[in-house]
Design a protein that fits this description.
Helix content: 55-70%
Strand content: 5-15%
Distance between the termini: 43 Å
Structural class: alpha+beta
Number of helices: 8
Order of helices and strands: HEHHEHEEHHHH
Mean pLDDT: 94
Low-confidence stretches: none
Length: 171
């Protein structure tokens, strides 16, 4: 039902995987999920789900999403694909910042993909698209990375950011 709701609303899911014995999980409940700014922001922008990873149902989800530390916070697409993962406790301002980043990337992804697919992606936007795709579609990230590397001039090989990029994708 939560995936259906997310799909209907075009939203991501925010998932909190916790256990009863996890001290930082309880700290999230007491210090972060009680902050009005966090509550309002996440209710407005995400479909929110919380599950005990040691319950019968939760164990299956924890295994499916390779969760082995707690708390683990996930942002999932309406199709159930992982968009962003946060492991461990994060204070309220940091969680809201993660939410902002995820919302920005979620809204930019279709625009960047359309521009790439139509041959209109500006050179400076390639790294933005690749960064998002690395978490959501590694096969497409590698394809876009190869296309980006093909545009390099000899001077581009002297740029530290491009060297870093090449060691990840074209080494």
């Amino acid at each position: 039902e939560v995936f259906r709701k997310a799909s209907e609303n075009g939203q991501l899911l925010f998932v909190d995987a916790y256990t009863d014995w996890c001290g930082y999980c309880h700290k999230l409940d007491k210090e972060v999920y009680t902050e009005a700014s966090v509550i309002g922001y996440f209710e407005e922008n995400f479909v929110n789900v919380k599950f005990d990873a040691e319950s019968e149902f939760g164990y299956q989800l924890a295994e499916y999403y390779s969760i082995n530390s707690y708390p683990t916070l996930l942002f999932l697409t309406p199709e159930g694909k992982l968009f962003q993962r946060i492991e461990g406790f994060v204070p309220a301002p940091a969680l809201k910042a993660y939410g902002d980043q995820v919302m920005t990337e979620w809204s930019e992804l279709p625009l960047l993909e359309d521009a790439y697919d139509n041959g209109q992606l500006e050179r400076e936007s390639y790294l933005d698209l690749i960064s998002i795709l690395e978490r959501t579609n590694m096969e497409k990230a590698e394809m876009v990375a190869a296309a980006y590397a093909a545009t390099f001039t000899p001077e581009d090989y002297l740029d530290l950011q491009n060297i870093w990029f090449l060691t990840r994708f074209e080494n």
